[in-house]
Description:
By secondary structure, this protein is α+β, with helices and mostly antiparallel strands. It contains 4 helices and 2 strands, in the order ααββαα.
Amino acid sequence: MRIEDLMSELRDLYTIVIVTHNMQQTARVADRTAFFTATVDETTGDRTGELVEFDLTITIFESPSDPRTEAYITGRFG
């Protein structure tokens, strides 16, 4: 909680980027949220990050535009 409190104190002075799999933390601290997934190259097996959706956090959580985002935030995927 102390880290989240500090982030709240600093948010007006700095841009803070966090990477988390914790959806509750995202909902608590983020103004905007980006959801990424990985695609796998069938021939090499290499994984490449793909931006699925980016929006205000409230929009991502209340009405995501991509079904993959909704599946992740509701715990049906990942």
